[in-house]
């Protein structure tokens, strides 16, 4: 790949994830402290991305793969999203705000797949080239968090407005990206064309079925972290919470380097177990930590994000890549994304909102606070149950045959 193309694709990834990291991380803090929305409403707002993830495969399969060039679809979606997100930042009533955020997520979530697709189409060897480009996305998320936290903007509408401005920039920039025409213009769209029956039939194998169920279930407590961690840290008195939360993305990058080493020694099952165990420990640390003498627990909970994400989700993507035939890998990965980031996180957004609202309390000044310890212990309990069920039911006899080369082959494609 030419250096010029690599730089342009890297800038695309940076902008894409800067947008997401700018508005999503601090959403709960702004909605709770400034707009005084309930915990249930905050959970629903955070779960709008899940609805976007559910519908995204159908949109991408119809529009980007069959009708229009990818860079033009990206440009249109980001420009439209910029307008919608800015209008949403001006709302003070939940129905209007939620409706706009939902429409925005229907615009934004397909762009995650489209940026990957556009990048892959420009590469001669995606397995070796994609990782160094995708890592700029994680850097964009980190810089967004550091900037917003250092400027003390977490409880304001500014992060959403900043994301809207960046979305407009991304939209205009997208029109300058290399031309990426539709893959086909003849194949009709159907459920089977997006999720072929051969990919769905993989779930008929016991190990894959258990893995899919566990992946769906672990995404339910996962949403507690994404929707409410920033609000939690701000309410307990952590300074620059958004900036400190970027430690999770930094640990992602570090743990990514460790995956081949651990893959060779632990195998698939115990890599997945380690990831789910990290989720359980993270919530226990949040339940017991404080910004004083136990601040190390809060830091540990944040830094465990690398193990939480990489050891379960990235290892899971490698596992799917190994189990599916070459022609079904994309469809199988899309099916798992639909089950996890779509249905799983939507369920988690509803449940997390209900639990947080159940533990809401009003102080003497009338402000709404939350009893965070039982909230995090509930999330830890759900994660622990999923961990136990998976540990005692999952068995993949072929995992001993997994070589380090397979992990390294899949790693660049799954960099998060």
General description of the model:
There is one protein chain. The protein is mainly α and about 425 residues long. The protein folds into two domains: about 1-180, Up-down Bundle (Growth Hormone, Chain: A); about 195-415, MFS general substrate transporter like domains (Growth Hormone, Chain: A, Up-down Bundle). It has 17 helices and two strands. The chain has helices spanning about 5-25, 25-35, 40-45, 50-65, 70-90, 95-120, 125-150, 160-175, 190-195, 195-200, 205-235, 240-290, 295-305, 305-325, 330-360, 370-395, 405-410; strands spanning about 360, 370. The chain has a two-stranded antiparallel sheet with strand order 1-2. Helix 1 packs antiparallel against helix 8, helix 11 (about 205-235) runs antiparallel to helix 16 and helix 12 (about 240-290) crosses helix 14 (about 305-325). It starts with a helix and ends in a 6-residue tail after the last helix. The model is unreliable at about 400-405 and about 410-415 (pLDDT under 50).
Report the order of strands and helices.
Answer: HHHHHHHHHHHHHHHEEHH
CATH topology of the largest domain: Growth Hormone, Chain: A
CATH class label of the largest domain: Mainly Alpha
Radius of gyration: 21 Å
Question: What proportion of the residues form beta strands (DSSP E)?
Answer: under 5%
Which key phrases capture this entry?
globular, mainly alpha, 416 residues, two-stranded antiparallel ribbon, single chain, Growth Hormone, Chain: A, 2 domains, disordered C terminus
């Amino acid at each position: 790949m030419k250096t010029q193309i690599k730089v342009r694709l890297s800038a695309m990834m940076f902008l894409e994830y800067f947008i997401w990291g700018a508005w999503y991380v601090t959403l709960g803090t702004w909605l709770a402290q400034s707009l005084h929305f309930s915990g249930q409403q905050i959970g629903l707002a955070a779960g709008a991305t899940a609805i976007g993830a559910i519908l995204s495969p159908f949109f991408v399969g119809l529009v980007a793969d069959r009708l229009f060039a990818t860079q033009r679809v990206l440009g249109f979606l980001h420009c439209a999203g910029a307008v919608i997100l800015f209008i949403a930042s001006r709302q003070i009533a939940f129905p209007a705000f939620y409706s706009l955020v939902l429409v925005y997520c229907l615009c934004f979530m397909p762009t995650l797949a489209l940026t990957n697709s556009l990048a892959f189409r420009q590469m001669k060897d995606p397995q070796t080239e994609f990782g160094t480009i995708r890592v700029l996305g994680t850097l964009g998320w980190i810089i967004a968090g550091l900037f917003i936290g250092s400027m003390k903007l977490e409880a304001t509408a500014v992060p959403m407005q900043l994301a809207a401005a960046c979305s407009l920039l991304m939209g205009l920039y997208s029109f300058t990206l290399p031309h990426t025409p539709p893959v086909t213009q003849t194949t009709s769209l159907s459920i089977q064309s997006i999720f072929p029956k051969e990919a769905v039939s993989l779930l008929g194998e016991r190990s894959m079925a258990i893995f899919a169920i566990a992946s769906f279930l672990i995404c339910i407590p996962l949403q507690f972290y994404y929707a409410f961690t920033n609000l939690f840290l701000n309410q307990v008195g952590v300074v620059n919470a958004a900036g400190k939360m970027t430690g999770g993305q930094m640990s992602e990058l570090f743990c990514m380097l460790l995956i081949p080493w651990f893959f060779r020694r632990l195998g698939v099952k115990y890599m997945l177990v380690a990831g789910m165990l990290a989720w359980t420990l993270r919530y226990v640390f949040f339940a017991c930590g404080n910004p004083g003498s136990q601040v190390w627990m809060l830091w540990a909970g944040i830094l465990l994000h690398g193990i939480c994400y990489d050891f379960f989700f990235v290892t899971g993507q490698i596992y799917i890549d190994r189990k599916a035939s070459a022609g079904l890998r994309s469809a199988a990965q899309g099916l798992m994304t639909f089950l996890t980031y779509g249905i799983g996180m939507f369920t988690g957004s509803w449940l997390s909102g209900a639990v947080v609202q159940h533990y809401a309390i009003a102080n003497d000044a009338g402000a709404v606070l939350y009893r965070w310890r039982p909230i995090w212990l509930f999330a830890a309990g759900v994660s622990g149950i999923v961990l136990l069920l998976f540990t005692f039911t999952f068995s993949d006899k072929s995992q001993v045959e997994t070589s380090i080369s397979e992990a390294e082959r899949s790693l660049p494609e799954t960099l998060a």
